[in-house]
Amino acid sequence: MLSLQLRLLALALAAWTRLPAAAIAHGSDAAEARARSLRYLPLAGAAVALPAAVAYAIAGLWLPHEASLLVAFGVLTLLTGAIHERGLAAWCEDLAARTRTDGSFTAAGATGLLLVVLGRFESLSSIDPSWIAVTLVTAAVFSRGCAVFVLGDAIAIDGPRAPGPRAPDGAIALALGLVPVIAAALWTGNLEGFGTAAGLSLAAALLVRRTLAPRRLPRDERALGAVQQLAELGFHLGILATLSIADETLADPAS
Q1: How far apart are the C-alpha atoms of 38 and 42, rounded to whole Å?
Q2: Are the CB atoms for 50 and 64 separated by under 8 Å?
Q3: Residue 125 contacts residue 69 (beta carbons within 8 Å)
Q4: Among 27, 49, 94, 137, fewest CB within 10 Å belongs to which?
């Protein structure tokens, strides 16, 4: 049982990151195993976000806040292969293709991706540097748990006829995503901030799901990427909003 779970974890790392886990995952690459490995997608998020947070901290010794963030984003892109960003861009293209008939939707993917990535960057650049590492990690982990939980057993990453995750897989993914959020909230004492961030992240994920069925959009890795990216943006915005409100309250206690 333990060896199976380790293989599923390795398969999640091999499928959703560029980390060298393929050798461990060997023999578990069947469609059903790939689908079930989504339960560990949050751990794959932690595996790429932790090095990005370390890279930010090291770069911050010499570089300004914004430049250090670019370094962290670069590390994230290298470690994930931008797989979720590509999924978001493809999902935006699919969404535009079903709402226009004149063929002028080729820029939809690039536009959607640009807005989301810029939103994430601007949100983080507006946060005090002491919050960046914990926000990077918790957002990466929770957004992936949200994506698997919200799309549920309807995810078909290997095609519409391939088996999807089982019902408990989404619950396991969400639970794994919640662990660092709860830990960070207790560690920092900012229960409102991380609670708001998790709520906005889940709301963004549900919003994407709401667009799938009426437009007959597939629930494949494109949808998974879209949910993850928008959920991560929602998390960043939640942290930014609560920290901004707290700063204003401290600056003007009478308000």
Answers
A1: 8
A2: no
A3: yes
A4: 27
